[in-house]
Amino acid sequence: MMNIEDFKNMFRAHLSHEIWDKWRKGQLDVSMRRNTSDGCKYEGLPKEAADKIFDGGEIHSCEDLADPTEVISDRYACSLYGITTFKPSGYAIEEDFPNEVVLLVRGWSVADFMSDWTKFDTVDD
User: Fold this and answer.
1) Phi and psi, residue 64, nearest 5°
2) pTM for the structure as a whole
3) Distances (CA, A) of 44 to 32, 88, 103, 111
4) Helix, strand, coil: what percent of the chain each, to 5?
5) Are 83 and 99 spatial neighbours (Cβ–Cβ below 8 Å)?
6) CA distance to 37, 82, 97, 103, per residue, from 94 (Å)
7) Cβ of 93: how many Cβ atoms within 10 Å?
8) Is residue 81 classed exposed, middle or buried when 0-12, 13-18 and 19+ CB atoms within 10 A define those classes?
9) Nearest CA to 31 among 75, 69, 76, 83?
10) E-assigned strand segments in the chain
11) Using one digit for the tens of pLDDT, what is the confidence trace for 60-108?
């Protein structure tokens, strides 16, 4: 039986590969999140910056959520990814955490990833 740490490593590696692959194919809409005194703000992310973050960063956290940038937030699958970059990033979530980037991915969720990976059918198909 696989231990938890091995499963986490396998999951993280496969998720990273799938995100990078979908990003390269132009299948993801990605924004970055910054924490401000007024709450979270989402901003566009230049393609070159996203390339470096996805290709050279390590996912350490992820979650599905309703799109926080939409008035009607349940239209699209969305997910947040916490990524540690190897070099300080100008797109970091806060000045105090220069290697931590949080990306909002619209149109694809962790649940979508699991369904693609395991080939499970969706409940309402």
Assistant:
1) -90, 150
2) 0.84
3) 6, 18, 10, 24
4) 30, 30, 35
5) no
6) 11, 13, 5, 13
7) 20
8) buried
9) 69
10) 29-36, 39-44, 57-65, 78-85, 100-106
11) 999 998 888 777 666 678 899 999 998 888 888 888 899 999 999 988 8
CA gap 37, 40 in Å, rounded:
8
Q: What is the pLDDT of residue 75?
A: 67
Q: What is the mean pLDDT of the chain?
A: 86
Alpha-carbon span 22 to 26, nearest angstrom = 6
Q: Write phi, then psi, for 101 (nearest 5 degrees).
A: -120, 140
How far is residue 5's CA from residue 89's CA, in Å, rounded to a whole number? 28
Q: Which two tokens stand for residue 35?
A: 């924490």
Residue 74 confidence (pLDDT): 64
Tokens 């992310």 belong to residue? 45
Give the pLDDT mean for 25-32: 90
The amino acid at residue 75 is: R
Beta bridge partner(s), residue 58? 84
